[in-house]
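Weekly modeling sync, notes
Attendees: S.R. (lead), two postdocs, one rotation student

Agenda item 3: backlog of single-chain predictions. S.R. asked that every request posted to the team notebook include the full sequence so nobody has to chase files. The rotation student volunteered to paste the first one in as an example of the format we agreed on. Action items at the bottom.

Example entry:
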Amino acid sequence: MPSLKEKFASQIPGIREELKVLHAEKKDKVISSVTVEQAFGGMRGVKAMICDTSVVDPGKGLIIRGIPILEGLTDKWPEQIFWLLLTGEMPNDAEVKSLQKDYADRCDVPDYVWKVLKAMPKESHPMAMLNTAILVMEYESQFRKRYTEGMKKSNYWEPALEDSLRLLAVMPGIAAGVYRIRYGKGDPIPYDKNLDWGANYATMLGIPDPSGEFKKLMRLYLPLHCDHEGGNVSAFTCHTVGSALSDPYYSVSAGLNGLAGPLHGLANQECLGFVLEIKEKFGGAPTVEQLKKFAWDTLNGGKVIPGYGHAVLRCPDPRFIAFLDFGKKHCPEDPVFKIVQMIFEHIPAVLIEHGKAKNPQPNVDAGSGALLYHYGLKEFPYYTVLFSVSRAMGMCSQLIINRAIGTAITRPKSVSTEWVKANA
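Predicted structure, as returned to the notebook:
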């Protein structure tokens, strides 16, 4: 049975030929135009890059390699999702075991990483610790080593894949170690080579899990956050840095630094904070009328309902629905989860009546934090690290593909405000 490397290698000639023909036939076709509002508004909606790993449809949500997330992917493990992201095909059992062995062979976190993390200030942010560990490991980069030695451009993808496999193999261990070091939970827990990637992450965090439900949550959480097109801050930053032929350690670290921003990766903890505020105010789940009044007071006070609205989606985020279904099955009586469910059932109508929300439906962040909280992971600043472990799958798969097809360096043209005044 072919390994992931062998599988992807067999696809590369066909991908390159397809793109060669596409460039020849359509190189002068216009796929987007840019308004002044878009230029000043973060380029939102401008079609100016290619990402084949996933797309986000306004009416369907996240679609990974042509498969909507709710239609056959919520029961898949992270290993299956990474294989799908990179190859466009769902692996069979033997291929999954092959990838799990790839991770197991590369999972040992170097001692120098723990020494660096333990030497950092005790109040360091978990994301700073995670990114520091990734950058420290850049010392091992096979891409940088082979580029320095000299290799053909057509072979760039091979060390990019090797670096990515190494990075993904250690991500759960480093991320869990950050949690244990930063919050005084004890020494890092070693990777269990008999467990899958998601279960390993849950186990290495050290959170009691007698029922195994927390492992199930991690197996769901990691695929749901793995990829979200190429234009979000983390993916686009990783893509841009990688396009300069910076190796995957530099590139993924750069992307995760973007993910650390309040407008990108902090949303789920803000949503959970809002839910806990409601719980504290009413001593548990409120009545429907109390919840509606609280929502109106929040909106009339110039604030927003966290977790509701999305830049692209015009439907309930399917990833939220997946988390909601998990909660209904595993913790339906949890008071925090009950409030999440009540908000979903009653607040969209308030937002519609209020009139300012373009999309009054929940996004993924509206529900994930409540589930983490239920299982005992209550350190809010750490939540973005969980997001990072997941999003690394998407960033690495995009990096490998871009090195295989020879994607050019990202270099859009900028103009000045004075140019806009004179020419727009």
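Discussion: group reviewed the output briefly. The domain at 267-374 is CATH 1.10.230.10 (Cytochrome p450-Terp; domain 2).
Action items: rotation student to repeat for the remaining queue; S.R. to check formatting next week.
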